[in-house]
Amino acid sequence: MEAEPGTAPELEPEPAMEPEVEPAPETEPVPAAETATDDDPATDAAAPETATAVLDLDGAEAGADASDPAPALRLEKVSKSFGRTRAVDAVDLEIPAGTFYGLVGPNGAGKTTTLSMIAGLLRPDAGTIIVGGVDLQRDPRAAKALMGVLPDRLRTFDRLTGRQLLHYYGVLRGLRPAVVAERTEDLARAFDLTAALVRPVSDYSAGMTKKIMLAGALIHAPRLLVLDEPFEAVDPVSSEVILEILTAYVARGGTVILSSHGMELVERVCDGVAVIVAGQVLAHGSVDDVRGDHTLAERFVQLSGGLSDVEGLEWLHTYSD
After folding, report:
1. Quick one: which of 142, 136, 92 has its CA closest to 116?
2. Is the pTM of this model over 0.85?
3. In which domain, by residue range, is 134 found?
4. For the chain, what is the domain count?
């Protein structure tokens, strides 16, 4: 999430500890360190029974109006190049509101570049991006207000505690401190992070860091979530917690677009999917339409160029002594 120009909001002090607070940087936050493991029972506990409680608070705001015909997201001939490399090539996509949409493709296919342009982190060289009826290039502030973003390469103010980080995100989004405090408690309970709120984020495991960042993306009740590899490096318990919250969010009218290498997960939870290879969308539509008579993984392999050529590796079977 990009901070608006101006002075960073004052952070609420923690009663239990006094962490050093970083000033807001001009460009990108510092990377979060990962000093704990996802297997630590004291940090990543079982999925809480109140995992969808936060949706009861924000569902009306997050959900799109069912009578609104505007799609949650539309890309028209969107392209991006880096030097001579065409990372994204004239991509067209339309994602209806209230859907779970997957973006899949091999490494280097252009998924992260596409999501970064949708989130407003990169400017496209050509094309138009419409978020909830708002042109991202013409009115970026209004378009970004409709979105919550979880980038793949987590960068955050890791010297802040979890509570301070969510307070910071909420105030930057224009929420009143009292509302931020209430939503922080709801989100922490939903993500099973209540006990961790007083600890610096630098002490969080990879799974906990993903959860606190996703909580920050949700705190202003966005209509659209843009998630780049949200389940990468996350343990199975945390994955189920995240998935339960996202499923409830979509059921109440929110829209999720995510990238993932987990074909089984995309096949299980997504309504629609687009396959990107070499910067181009080779197939898109409902999951059933894209996979046809195959599994999504089989269809993905077909579209991305098939299996690698193992001819010439017969020497691997000689087994040196």
Report:
1. 136
2. no
3. 53-306
4. 1
